[in-house]
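Same chain as my last thread, 276 residues:
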Amino acid sequence: MKKNLIYIIAAVVVIAVLALVILLNQSKTNLPTINSAEDLAAVIDKVYEGQTNLLGSLMTQTVDVADKDFVNMVTEWLNADKSRKLILVAGGGAPARVYQNAYKDVAGKTGVNAQSDAADWIGIMATRINAQLLKACFGDFCKSDVVYDPTKDIEFEGQILVAAGWKPGFSTDNDAVLLGEKFNAETIVNLSNIEKVYTDDPRKNPDAKPLDTISWADFRKMVGDEWVPGKNCPFDPIASKKAESLGMKVICAGGKNIPNIKAILNDEEYIGTTIA
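reply #2:
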């Protein structure tokens, strides 16, 4: 299979956190009951880009919710050329971190020794819920089952393949790299709540500068070599090491800028950071 036929989008899911928000706020909203993909599409119609909701009684972190524009853009892009394929790797996003932090907080207050594997499994389960929602949203475009183990033999039917978390010690960034290796994709588009990689955390360092490009060697100096469950960094250190060894390119970009994501897919000028 030639390279560049498949893009891999690793996202802190653009729409998938919607389900958790609906479930935890059901008594406070007028949203309809979801019994089918059509019902879900109707709900997405009611959600506006940039809306935030607090996660019920947890009240510890906001969740970003996007609208149907991402689904529409992707389906239009795929319909324009039936040879195009996308692999969507669902991250756990804010819900995963909320539950991981809740676990660590409870463990600390009860004297239980918090286990990193337990925190990792919590995050993995969040990615799997998100991935199932993505699969449902794309309907006939996504005919294969959600991938949980990127090392197994995988049938890629349709134009979209959806994947989720694998096992403790491996992030969904790492899953994306392994899938890229399996399907000969050379570009991973990593979508999150930041538009570019910075030289430092801009929330803590006002002198931090955004980067248009950075080498793998310099990027890996920034993120280190160790993966920690729930760690919030532009691209996982273990996945970075693997991607560098395979000669892959990773584009880090914002997940809410739908026209910009389309520009990336069309190999046009875009806002983001290219790691290569």
